[in-house]
Amino acid sequence: MQRRISLALLIVCLIVGATGFVTFSSLPAHAVLPDEMLKDQALEHRARDLSRELRCLVCQNESIDDSAAPLARDLRLLLRERLKAGDTDQQVLDYLVARYGEFVLLKPRLSMHTVLLWGTPPILLVLGGIVLLFAVRRRRQADGMRESQRPLTGAEQERVSQLVGKESHL
Predict the structure, then answer these.
(1) Radius of gyration (Cα) for the chain, nearest Å?
(2) Which of 62, 108, 59, 57 is nearest to 78 (CA)?
(3) Cβ count within 10 A of residue 92
(4) What's the DSSP call for residue 35?
(5) Angle at 138 between CA 133 and CA 144, to 5 degrees
(6) What is the tens place of the pLDDT at every residue in 107-156?
(7) Fold of the domain spanning 31-109
(8) What's the mean pLDDT when you consider all of the chain?
(9) What is the mean pLDDT of residues 41-45?
(10) Among 35, 54, 86, 156, whose Cα sits 20 to 30 Å from the Cα of 72?
(11) pLDDT tens, 53-94?
(12) Cβ atoms < 10 Å from Cβ of 77
């Protein structure tokens, strides 16, 4: 009983920890400094939205909006300069991709270079489903074979003997 309670507590702790309720890592930790912010609120809002889509090339698992790395700051400033120059969001992203490559995007675009990246998870999911389907079928067939190969009960053996005896007299 105590083992079940311990296991249940462990599972609850893992779930709670994985969802971010216990840790504060799920809270935004914006690294944008006040001197980087644009005076125009609409442009600043666009800059923040775009910077959440761009990867810090130093940290690699953070957006430039969350990273305190000097290169992330440079990218934030460059992004804001492009917005002040009148570029659209797409033009800013295209400029940064042309300069730093697709890796700068946190969510890579679907292209010939990234088709394997985007296609592998669905393909693996379908293949896993097919393997699971065949495994279940094989298991059911094996269970059916075992059922037909079980030893006869005494009553069944007696009935077989009677039937065999009747056939031999014919």
Answers:
(1) 32
(2) 57
(3) 23
(4) G
(5) 130
(6) 877 777 777 777 888 999 999 999 999 999 988 887 766 666 777 788 88
(7) Helicase, Ruva Protein; domain 3 (1.10.8)
(8) 79
(9) 86
(10) 86
(11) 898 888 878 888 888 888 888 898 999 999 989 989 999 999
(12) 14
pTM value? 0.51
Higher pLDDT, 10 or 65: 65
For tokens 């005494």, what's the residue? Answer: 154
CA pair distance 148, 71, nearest whole angstrom: 71
Q: 3-state DSSP call for residue 139?
A: helix
d(CA 6, CA 106): 39
- Which of 96, 106, 113 is CA-nearest to residue 60? 106
Which residues in the chain are classed under CATH 1.10.8.640? 31-109
